[in-house]
Amino acid sequence: DMEQKMKMLENLQDDFDFNYKTLKSQGELSQDLNGNSQASAARQKMAQLEQMLSALDQLRRQIVTEMGGLLTAMDYVQKNLTNEELADWKRRQQIACIGGPPNICLDRLETWITSLAESQLQIRQQIKKLEELQQKVSYKGDPIIQHRPALEEKIVDLFRNLMKSAFVVERQPCMPMHPDRPLVIKTGVQFTNKVRLLVKFQELNYQLKL
Question: What biological process terms from GO does the record include (predicted)?
Answer without folding.
Answer: signal transduction
